[in-house]
Amino acid sequence: MAEDLQQRLEQCQKENDEMKKTIATLEKNIRENYWFWTDDSQDYTVHHPILNTLTSDEQNPLLTASVQIPKEGTGNDSTEYGSERREFGDFGLYNAKVNIELKINHDGEVNRASYMPQNSSFIATNSPSAVVLIYNYTKLATQNIDCRPELRLCGHTKEGYALSWNPNINRHILSASNDQTICLWNTEKLAIEEKFVDPLRIFLNIKLSSNWNTCSSHYTKSSHVADAHSAEVNCLSFNSFSEYIRATVSADKTVALWDLRNLMLKLHTFESHKNEIFQVQSSHHNETILASSGTGRRLRVWDLSKIGEEQTNDNAEDGPSELLFIHDWHRGKISDFSRNPTEPWITSSVPEDNIVQGWQMAENIYTEDENEVNSVDLE
């Protein structure tokens, strides 16, 4: 057993060493942190991430930070090999340090955190107390002794791990809980003194299964039930460009694409993952792009527009035509990832080793006039 473990570790190290050889061609702007909103500033943009920790028997604050990312064409050539560091790329023209700006005390662990898309001053979190907390972090001091949310959204009886702001309707937010309910709130009351908000609607009996329920206006009833996967459905993603398109992922190792107007027919099944899938997110900027990750250490990016394209035998061995890219830089299971809402191709992902990476694939991978990569450059 010890020999098998050693072989696995050696194989993992070998794969990471090989990835370093290709990282300059395939990806750029590798950063071991996580970011969101941007502001122009000289030759770089300033991104403000939200982070959280998970430590037993200790306070687990919600963190806001800032990091500088160089604008296109302002950094050194990432394909140039740095002999001193024995790695490709030199990003020394800007301050790459990630600065923690604010520590927000939280009621227990932060299960999930998300900026409001229409106003990044507001952050929502899932907590173990079953209450969804809304913070206006611009009103908080650098260090806060007490948990002081702007609003507490009531409705659940158990903690939850799913949270989604509505990108089209201002201040509307959904949360899913272990109590088998989904709650919808309107946080318009942010402007008044009311601190506790009841849900607009509660969707009941959302059970763990391979079926996928869509709920009607009557909150106790499902309008449709689709036999989505052969195992549990772990995550669902809304499409920012269509009110009808959804993506689901499952323990059956597949990603499924759906049209709400005809749930009897699955639009497409994406197959490449070798392990159970727990996360899927559609792009905020491109209606054909989505990404998925699971218990493996690889994150996959898919392009719906490439479904059915002809492939060479060599390309087919790497995966289906719609598999645009595989991020293969983590050393452990990917716990979570997020797409940057202001930069189309920047993604952050974090594995169980707690090293969060911010990365962007090379432009030639996703542009129509893709240039062929010389195999010599990959060696």
Task: Please sum up the structure shown.
By secondary structure, this protein is mainly β.
CATH architectural type of the domain at 227-364? 7 Propeller
Number of strands: 30
* Integer average pLDDT: 78
Strand content: 35-45%
Gyration radius from CA atoms, angstroms: 22 Å
Main beta-sheet annotation: 5 strands, antiparallel
**Helix content estimate:** under 10%
What does this protein look like?
The chain is mostly beta strands. Strands 2, 3, 4, 5 and 8 form a five-stranded antiparallel beta sheet that branches. It is 9% helix and 41% strand. It has three helices and 30 strands. The chain has a domain at 227-364: 7 Propeller (Methylamine Dehydrogenase, Chain H), CATH 2.130.10.10. The radius of gyration is 22 Å and the shape is globular. The two termini are 33 Å apart.
How would you summarize the topology of this molecule?
Layout: H1 2-26, E1 27-31, E2 37-41, E3 44-48, E4 50-52, E5 62-70, E6 81-82, E7 87-88, E8 99-104, E9 112-116, E10 119-126, E11 132-136, E12 151-153, E13 160-165, E14 172-177, E15 182-186, E16 196-197, E17 201-203, E18 211-215, E19 222-227, E20 233-239, E21 242-250, E22 254-259, E23 268-271, E24 277-282, E25 289-294, E26 299-303, H2 313-318, E27 323-327, E28 334-339, E29 346-351, E30 357-361, H3 363-366
Parallel strand pairs: 12-16
Antiparallel strand pairs: 1-30, 2-3, 3-5, 4-5, 5-8, 6-7, 9-10, 10-11, 11-12, 13-14, 14-15, 15-17, 18-19, 20-21, 21-22, 22-23, 24-25, 25-26, 26-27, 28-29, 29-30
